[in-house]
TrEMBL record:
Subcellular location field: Membrane
Organism field: Eleusine coracana subsp. coracana
Cross-referenced InterPro entries: LEA_2 (IPR004864), NDR1-like (IPR044839)
Gene Ontology BP terms: defense response to other organism
Main location: membrane
Source domain of life: Eukaryota
Membrane topology: Single-pass membrane protein
Name by which UniProt lists this protein: Late embryogenesis abundant protein LEA-2 subgroup domain-containing protein
Residue ranges of every copy of the Late embryogenesis abundant protein LEA-2 subgroup domain listed in the record: 3-88
Keywords of this entry: Membrane, Transmembrane, Transmembrane helix
Membrane listed as a keyword: yes
Length: 118
């Protein structure tokens, strides 16, 4: 499976305010394989609703923030030398808990994701 145009979006709150965006370079994933992607989605200033601001302040005080992560990519397959058409891949992972202290920022919990290819 080959991935092209891979984009990551970090969203917060019910209004899904977009806090960060990142791209990953195209890559090939071998059959029956898990591929780790190291992506740095740097937070940026973003307007949020009053409710989301209150929730964010509460989460910051607790030392961790739960966000949603969306991934979009164009993918294609090669089977027996034949290349497939391009498909759209969308993944949604929630909640991704981000630690705000140096100690908790080093660890990461596994998060289930819903994936659709169309």
């Amino acid at each position: 499976m080959r991935y092209e145009e891979v984009e990551f979006f970090v969203l917060y709150g019910e209004s899904e305010a977009q806090l960060a965006v990142a791209d990953a370079p195209p890559f090939r994933q071998p059959r029956r394989n898990e591929t780790r992607l190291d992506v740095r989605a740097v937070a940026r200033a973003a307007p949020v609703t009053e409710r989301a601001a209150r929730e964010l302040e509460h989460d910051q005080a607790a030392g961790e923030v739960a966000v949603d992560v969306r991934v979009r990519a164009r993918v294609w397959f090669r089977v027996g030398g034949v290349r497939s058409r391009r498909y759209s891949l969308q993944a949604f992972c929630s909640p991704v808990v981000v630690g705000l202290t140096p100690a908790s920022a080093r660890e990461f919990r596994e998060v289930p994701c819903d994936v659709a290819i169309s």
